[in-house]
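User: Please fill in residues for this 227-position structure.
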C-alpha cells in the first residue's frame, strides 16, 4: 500500500488529521529532507525513513516502490498540496510503482495566501512555474489571466523565473506596470511580505516565495451599486 500526502505549507498545525493517521501507521516514510522534517513528529519510532533530493529521487523512489510491492505501508510526503506544484513528482512515483497511487490533498500556500490577502478563488487564477521543462505556455496563460481582469496567485520557479523576472516579463508583454503586487515568503513559518506595484517588484526573494498580482479593476461580483 502506498499513499502520497500533502503536509501543508510548513507549520505542522496545517497537516490534516488523515495525513497524520497515515503517517502514524506507516512502515516506510519517504520525501525530500525539508518536507520530512515537517511531518517527523508523526512518524512511528520503528518506521524506515527514506530521504531524497533532486539528484537521487529516482533511485530512492525505486526503493519505495520495491517496499510497497513487498507489502509495506508506504507514505510519500509532499510540501503543500500534491496537486498544486507536486504533480510532476507524483507522476514519477506512479511510474516507479507501475500504477497510480493513492493521494491525500493538503493545505497549499496558495490557500494560505488567499486567506492572508483576502481574495476569492472564484475571481483568482492559480499558476505554478515550479516545474521542469518549458514554461512558455504557462507564461502565456498568466498574460491571459491578467488581460481578462482576474487576480493571479503565482508560484515562481527557482531561480530563473522569480518575482522580479515575472514582473519584467509581464511588463515587456504589455501588462500595465501599476498592478498591485504582494510577495509573501515562508508562509506559516515566520512569514514576511512585500507589497507595491508591478514596476517596483525588483528585489530578490527566496525560493519559498509566492506572489499575488491583483486585477486592475474589481471583479464584477465586487462592484456594488448604490441603494
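Assistant: Residues filled in for all 227 positions:
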Amino acid at each position: 500500500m502506498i499513499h502520497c500526502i500533502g503536509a501543508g505549507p510548513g507549520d505542522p498545525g496545517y497537516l490534516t488529521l488523515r495525513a497524520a493517521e497515515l503517517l502514524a501507521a506507516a512502515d516506510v516514510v519517504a520525501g525530500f529532507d525539508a518536507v520530512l522534517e515537517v511531518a517527523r513528529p508523526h512518524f512511528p519510532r520503528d518506521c524506515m525513513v527514506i530521504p531524497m533530493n533532486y539528484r537521487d529521487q529516482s533511485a530512492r523512489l525505486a526503493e519505495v516502490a520495491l517496499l510497497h510491492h513487498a507489502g509495506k505501508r508506504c507514505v510519500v510526503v509532499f510540501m503543500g498540496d500534491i496537486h498544486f506544484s507536486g504533480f510532476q513528482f507524483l507522476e514519477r512515483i506512479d511510474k516507479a510503482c507501475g500504477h497510480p497511487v493513492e493521494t491525500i490533498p493538503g493545505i497549499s500556500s496558495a490557500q494560505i495566501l488567499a486567506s492572508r490577502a483576502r481574495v476569492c478563488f472564484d475571481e483568482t487564477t492559480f499558476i505554478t512555474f515550479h516545474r521542469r521543462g518549458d514554461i512558455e505556455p504557462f507564461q502565456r496563460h498568466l498574460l491571459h489571466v491578467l488581460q481578462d481582469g482576474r487576480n493571479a496567485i503565482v508560484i515562481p520557479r527557482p531561480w530563473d523565473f522569480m518575482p522580479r523576472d515575472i514582473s519584467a516579463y509581464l511588463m515587456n508583454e504589455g501588462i500595465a506596470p501599476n498592478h498591485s503586487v504582494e510577495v509573501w515568503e515562508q508562509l506559516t513559518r515566520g512569514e514576511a511580505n512585500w507589497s507595491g506595484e508591478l514596476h517596483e517588484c525588483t528585489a530578490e526573494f527566496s525560493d519559498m516565495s509566492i506572489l499575488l498580482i491583483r486585477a486592475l479593476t474589481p471583479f464584477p461580483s465586487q462592484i456594488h451599486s448604490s441603494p
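For context: The chain has a mean pLDDT of 94.
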